[in-house]
């Protein structure tokens, strides 16, 4: 796969860019933007984002300094950063296109923890407003991530691994030190990460309480609850419920288990409660979800 030209953008992304301006995608972390004429706007987000410029035409203004953003370059935007941007030359035939990729705190923190021995001890040299050319491995990763957004099935099953792959290459790039500064696990995050690793295998343990999880994290129950939700966007019990339902769905689809069998396997004592919560999360009952999957 070659990812090196504006033809790549036109071929793969045209169907994802029906609107002028912002376009939502099948992955909530990713938004795409198409501009067909001159436009001024501010890059400012409440959470860290990776901004990927998929075509020429963008520039950033930092006081008297102007940064040009060439195609297939990127910059890491923290929650405190604001860049005044301008779309210069763009048209309907050759629009200016960029992607905004929100960086999930849990995924980034876990990845940096796993890579702690592999990351270079480089200083944070990422200047605000400056973009950096993506190297070939990162371009390939971004290309795969963008390509899988075209179908719901690819987005569901492939996007999470490609998303993590993009963050992996970002961590190894010139902006890796800034990523570490934003997401490097402190003592509190390390404690919560210990709990997250435990929950990957112990999600079916109905005896595991929030108080026990807080003790494992070496935190008070109230502090653990707040810190856990800041990383996962869910309370501990909501997170466990989400894991159980996802695992149960996988068991029904891959191993042919019935709804009640899957429910008990993942720790539910009530099949009816499982069915209610399954429908609330997935929008379909367990039997409807199995039928939908078999029709695909």
UniProtKB/TrEMBL annotation:
PROSITE patterns: HTH_ARAC_FAMILY_2. Keywords: Transcription, Transcription regulation. GO terms for molecular function: DNA-binding transcription factor activity; sequence-specific DNA binding. InterPro entries: Homeodomain-like_sf (IPR009057), HTH_AraC (IPR018060), Tscrpt_reg_HTH_AraC_N (IPR009594). Residues 193-292 form the HTH araC/xylS-type domain. The keyword Transcription regulation applies. The keyword Transcription regulation applies. This is HTH araC/xylS-type domain-containing protein. It comes from Pseudovibrio exalbescens.
């Amino acid at each position: 796969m070659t990812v090196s030209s504006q033809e790549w953008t036109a071929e793969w992304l045209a169907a994802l860019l029906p609107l002028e301006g912002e376009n939502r995608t099948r992955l909530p972390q990713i938004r795409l933007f198409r501009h067909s004429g001159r436009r001024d706007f501010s890059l400012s987000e409440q959470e860290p984002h990776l901004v990927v410029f998929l075509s020429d035409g963008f520039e950033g203004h930092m006081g008297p300094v102007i940064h040009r953003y060439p195609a297939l370059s990127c910059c890491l935007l923290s929650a405190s950063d604001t860049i005044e941007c301008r779309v210069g030359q763009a048209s309907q035939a050759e629009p200016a296109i960029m992607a905004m990729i929100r960086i999930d705190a849990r995924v980034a923190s876990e990845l940096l923890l796993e890579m702690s021995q592999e990351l270079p001890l480089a200083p944070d040299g990422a200047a605000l407003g400056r973009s950096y050319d993506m190297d070939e491995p990162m371009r390939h990763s971004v290309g795969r991530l963008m390509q899988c957004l075209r179908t719901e099935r690819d987005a569901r099953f492939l996007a999470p691994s490609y998303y993590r792959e993009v963050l992996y290459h970002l961590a190894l790039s010139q902006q890796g030190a800034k990523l570490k500064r934003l997401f490097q696990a402190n003592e509190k995050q390390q404690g919560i990460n210990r709990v997250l690793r435990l929950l990957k295998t112990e999600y079916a343990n109905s005896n595991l309480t929030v108080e026990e999880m807080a003790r494992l994290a070496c935190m008070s129950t109230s502090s653990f609850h707040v810190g856990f939700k800041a990383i996962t966007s869910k309370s501990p019990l909501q997170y466990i419920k989400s894991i159980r339902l996802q695992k149960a769905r996988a068991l029904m689809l891959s191993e042919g288990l019935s709804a009640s069998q899957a429910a008990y396997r993942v720790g539910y004592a009530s099949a009816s409660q499982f069915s209610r919560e399954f429908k609330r999360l997935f929008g379909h009952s367990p039997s409807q979800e199995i039928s939908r999957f078999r029709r695909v």
